[in-house]
Amino acid sequence: MLCTQGLTLSQFAKAVSGGSGAGNSQESSSETSATNRRTKSIYTPLEQQFLEIKAQYKDVLLCVECGYKYRFFGQDAEIAAKELNIFCHIDHNFMTASIPAHRLFVHVRRLVSQGYKVGVVKQTETSALKAVGANKSSLFTRQLTALYTKSTLVGEGIHQWLKVFHTPAVLLPVVAEQELSVQCFFTVNT
Fold it and tell me: Where is this region: Disordered (predicted)?
């Protein structure tokens, strides 16, 4: 029996995958070599690209564009799964979670409001250009295109989300070109 209390998702995945077959000592050598090939940790090109970008931005949750979705990898996937209430699973060598591309900024706002720095890693070449180019079968180039924190995320949508936590007063100053006898300031509550 495997005790899962207090384990993170990645620790649990390692325990489950590493724990199977430990009791069978009568495996043939071909089965053993096949098992070793499957468990050998060789990163996919996308995982290698993620590791290179993550090395530059260690304290940032990275959303990586993969077609029509954004994926989180490793510890970032576990955090995103917990905070966004989305599914997280193991894929090749990392835990992964994904969100649809059209909902990116909804989820970015949610993560930023929880206090995380969120980086958006986009594909810097299009599939049409890639199909015509010489590197048709190579990996899309990706780079960090946006970094969001509580102080840098602005716009109408974020203010609607932050209303849940507190309702700040919005001041509307009135400026007149001619001298007026009365100066007015309005407080607008939305």
Answer: 16-38
Is 138 domain-assigned? yes
pLDDT digit string, tens, across residues 164-188: 444 455 556 666 676 655 555 555 5
CA-nearest of 188, 190, 135 to 163 is 190
- Answer yes or no: are the C-beta atoms of 137 and 96 closer than 8 Å: no
Name the pTM for this structure.
0.61
Domain of residue 57, residue span: 41-162
- List the CATH number of the domain containing 129: 3.40.1170.10
CB 119 within 8 A of CB 89: no
Total length of the chain: 190
Number of structural domains (the chain) is 1
Residue 107 lies in a domain: yes
**Res 137: pLDDT:** 76
